């Protein structure tokens, strides 16, 4: 049984935080943060705990201090806390939606690698804290919203119908994550300033996890070959295929260049691939797409004829071949025309 407990859950039990038991967060946190354990990370948690009791709380802060022995732990609570001092834990008093306080916390203790919102759980506070604090995360940092279920609860200002402001924030995060796809549908769509910094969005029971990082991948619909992510992907594909060429890999590479609007490069690769795999369906299909894009009807006919040797009864190919032949040789005008 003991073996089933991860080290963070064990610390949660020892220090008496509700992050394990009433909630089920610590195994998720251990999965997310175990790789950082030995690093001098900076963690900010909103909500010391203990509520109106000044001398109570700090359970999760003690847990984090033990879990990250090199870590610097910071917390904010609306109640002025009087807890025994700890050399690596610092507390601030104030509300999580107070912009001036959040700026001071960031200036004194940031930038943060991890921010956890376990404060009031009032949706408008959660959104205000996210808007102020997400930009202060380090690149690759993680922002966690605990107890997001209050977004569904009217007594917290949430709504069962649409999840209120917290679910709206999640929707915004997912839109930002997919900004390149959203603009395919609506070029004028307005994004918040952090749109290109949301690298991932994860949802667990009562928990949202948002990772900050580069989010410049292009849309596969409007594929931009100059996009740094596309440049890197093409470099790796070309290097790998040079080392170990495959027909399927070459067909995909041809398609990527076509998507990116470079039929000349696509043709070079298609010509090379056809020499090596003259009767491969994937290569012939990709080469056919190149020929069609370039308006090269003889090449189209050649690919279609070879594809029909592989699948003689394919009516789609038969029709495409008939169409291509008609374009090459328009039908004889009928007598009297
Ligand atoms: C759930 S407890 C935190 C528990 C603690 N993080 C733990 O896991 O041991 C929530 C804390 O948030 C504080 N709080 C409530 N409203 C707040 C606000 N607007 N800003 C900052 N803290 C607030 C409460 O005083 C309470 O101590």
Provide structural commentary.
- The structure is a single chain.
- By secondary structure, the protein is α/β, with parallel strands linked by helices.
- It has 2 domains: 2-212, Rossmann fold; 228-328, Alpha Horseshoe (Serine Threonine Protein Phosphatase 5, Tetratricopeptide repeat), CATH 1.25.40.10.
- 46% of the residues lie in helices and 13% in strands.
- The protein contains 13 helices and 7 strands.
- It has helices at residues 7-15, 26-33, 59-67, 99-109, 123-133, 164-177, 179-185, 228-243, 247-259, 263-276, 281-294, 297-310, 315-328, and strands spanning 42-46, 72-77, 89-93, 112-117, 137-146, 198-204, 207-212.
- Strands 3-2-1-4-5-7-6 form a 7-stranded mixed sheet, sandwiched between helices.
- A hairpin with a 2-residue loop joins strand 6 and strand 7.
- The longest helix is centred in the C-terminal third of the chain and has 16 residues, at 228-243.
- The chain is elongated and about 100 Å long.
- The termini are far apart.
- The mean pLDDT is 96.
- S-adenosylmethionine (SAM) is lined by residues 17-19, 45-51, 57, 59-60, 76-79, 95-96, 118-120, 125.
Provide a quick synopsis of the model:
The protein is α/β, with parallel strands linked by helices.
Largest sheet, spatial ordering of strands: 3-2-1-4-5-7-6
Bound molecules: S-adenosylmethionine
Shape: elongated
Radius of gyration: 29 Å
Q: Please tell me the CATH architecture of the largest domain by its name.
A: 3-Layer(aba) Sandwich
Mean pLDDT: 96
Q: Strand fraction band?
A: 5-15%
CATH topology value of the largest domain: Rossmann fold
Largest sheet, in brief, is: 7 strands, mixed
The helix count comes to 13
Number of domains: 2
Instruction: Please give the alpha-carbon distance between the first and last residues.
Output: 90 Å
Q: Helicity range of the residues?
A: 40-55%
């Amino acid at each position: 049984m003991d073996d089933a407990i991860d080290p963070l859950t064990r610390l949660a039990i020892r220090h008496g935080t509700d992050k394990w038991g009433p909630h089920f967060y610590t195994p998720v946190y251990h999965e997310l943060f175990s790789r950082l354990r030995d690093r001098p990370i900076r963690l900010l948690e909103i909500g010391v705990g203990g509520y109106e009791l000044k001398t109570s709380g700090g359970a999760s802060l003690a847990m984090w201090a033990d879990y990250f022995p090199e870590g610097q732990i910071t917390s904010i609570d609306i109640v002025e806390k009087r807890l025994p001092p700890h050399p690596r834990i610092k507390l601030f008093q104030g509300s999580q939606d107070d912009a001036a306080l959040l700026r001071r916390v960031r200036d004194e203790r940031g930038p943060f690698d991890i921010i956890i919102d376990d404060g009031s759980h009032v949706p408008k506070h959660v959104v205000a804290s996210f808007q102020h604090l997400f930009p202060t995360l380090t690149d690759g940092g993680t922002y966690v919203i605990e107890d997001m279920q209050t977004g569904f609860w009217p007594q917290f200002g949430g709504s069962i119908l649409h999840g209120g402001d917290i679910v709206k924030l999640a929707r915004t995060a997912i839109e930002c994550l997919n900004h390149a796809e959203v603009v395919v549908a609506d070029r004028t769509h307005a994004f918040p300033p952090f749109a290109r910094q949301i690298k991932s969005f994860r949802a667990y029971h009562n928990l949202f996890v948002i990772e900050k990082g580069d989010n410049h991948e292009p849309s596969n619909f409007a594929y931009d070959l100059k996009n740094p992510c596309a440049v890197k992907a093409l470099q790796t594909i070309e290097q790998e295929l040079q080392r170990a060429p495959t027909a399927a890999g070459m067909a995909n590479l041809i398609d990527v260049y076509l998507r990116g609007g470079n039929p000349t490069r696509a043709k070079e690769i298609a010509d090379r691939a056809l020499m090596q795999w003259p009767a491969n369906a994937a290569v012939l299909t990709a080469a056919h797409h190149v020929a069609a894009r370039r308006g090269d009807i003889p090449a189209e006919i050649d690919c279609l004829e070879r594809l029909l040797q592989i699948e003689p009864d394919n009516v789609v190919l038969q029709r495409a071949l008939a169409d291509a032949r008609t374009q090459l040789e328009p039908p004889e005008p009928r007598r009297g025309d």
